[in-house]
Each structure stands twice: as structure tokens, then as C-alpha cells.
Amino acid sequence: MNAQQQLEQAREMLQDWIQAERAVMTGQEYRIGSRMLRRADLDMIAQRVAYWKGEVDRLEGNSRIRTQQIIPRNL
User: Fold this and answer.
1) Which of 4, 23, 45, 59 is the most exposed place for a label (fewest CB within 10 A)?
2) Residue 11 dihedral angles phi and psi, to the nearest 5°
3) What's the DSSP call for residue 27?
């Protein structure tokens, strides 16, 4: 799977989880694959939304790169 396909898949997954969150927040149930999600699953849904948002950002090149300056010292 190339980078563009990975990005499209990540975007689709993010949208699926956002739809699940909306449905569950309004008191409805939502099904993703064989899993039925209910209001009690909102924490797990929020975790998955955050995960897929991070994946989309990473694949789009929007992730924050942390750099650290190292100063070598002779002891």
C-alpha cells in the first residue's frame, strides 16, 4: 500500500469514528464491522478519533517533529 492509499484509508477511518461518536452522543448505537458501540464506549471512540487524526496528520506531513540539541562535552 503506497502513502496516498494509506492516507485515504486513514481519512476514511477517521470519518467512520467521527460518525460513530456523533451517533453515540445522540443516544444511538453505531456499528463498525461486527462491533456495536453505545454511549458507554465514548472514551474508546474518542481514543480512536485521536489516533486516526494523528495518523492523518502524520501521513499528510503535519506532525510536529521534535528536535533536541546535544552538546558534546569532554569529561
Assistant:
1) 4
2) -65, -40
3) T
